Amino acid sequence: MSDNGPSRVLAIVTNYGVEQDELLVPVRHLRDHDTPVDVAGVSAGEIRTLVGDKDPGDSGTADLALADVDPSAYDLLLIPGGTLNADSLRLDDKAMEIVRAFTSSGRPVAAICHGPWALVETGAVQGKRLTSYASLQTDVRNAGGEWVDEAVVTDDTGGWTLITSRDPGDLKEFLREIDATLTA
Fold it and tell me: Among the options 107, 114, 128, 166, which is catalytic?
């Protein structure tokens, strides 16, 4: 996608509560395939992940703070889930500015599990077909999106690509669609 070398991916998270595999597995996968990934947290430094929203997971690292992100430097936005992470993230003004920067400029967004809450918050699901953790389906529909129960959904309507999945069990399909989008 990028004209200046490999595509660059930005993942946005809070520093506590992101679902372990929804952050760490995609970041590792992309980096293993020579795709530069920056993880932006509310603050730079340690990220404490959870497994199933309750059990402590492996730690990760935020390379930079949300406040220091230049969204124009990236080709794809990754929004992992985790109920605590996603609920806090959608209340963060800088995180929502980043989401709007991607959707308004036509760059792809990949969101999994509770991650689509950020898109609901910004109004970006209007007219989009997507999936998420099942508890978000009413929020998605109320925001004008079409919620479906599928492992992965890619929707190119509205001038930008949205890739969504339901939960960590869908990571294989989610990563396949991210890879396809980055190499298109």
Answer: 114
For residues 114 and 80, what is the distance between their CA atoms, to the nearest angstrom? Answer: 7
Q: What share of the chain is helix, strand, coil (3-state, %, to 5)?
A: 40, 25, 35
| Six token digits for residue 20 | 């372990």
Q: N- to C-terminal Cα distance for the chain? A: 7
Q: Is 33 a catalytic residue?
A: no
Q: Which residues pair with 56 in a beta bridge?
A: 50
Which pLDDT tens digit goes with each residue over 120-136?
A: 999 999 999 999 999 99
Mean pLDDT to the nearest integer, 94-107: 98
Please report, as a single letter, which amino acid is at residue 130.
L
How is residue 93 written in tokens? 């003004």
Eight-state DSSP code of residue 90 = T
What is the distance, to the nearest Å, from the Cα of residue 119 to the centroid of all Cα atoms in its chain? 9
DSSP state, 80? -
CA angle, 35 then 39 then 44, to 5°: 145
User: CA 81, 158, 179 angle in degrees (round to 5)?
Assistant: 50
Question: How far apart are the C-alpha atoms of 154 and 163, rounded to whole Å?
Answer: 4
Distance between CA atoms of residues 164 and 152, nearest Å: 6
Indicate the burial class of 84 (C-beta count within 10 angstroms; 0-12, 13-18, 19 or more).
middle
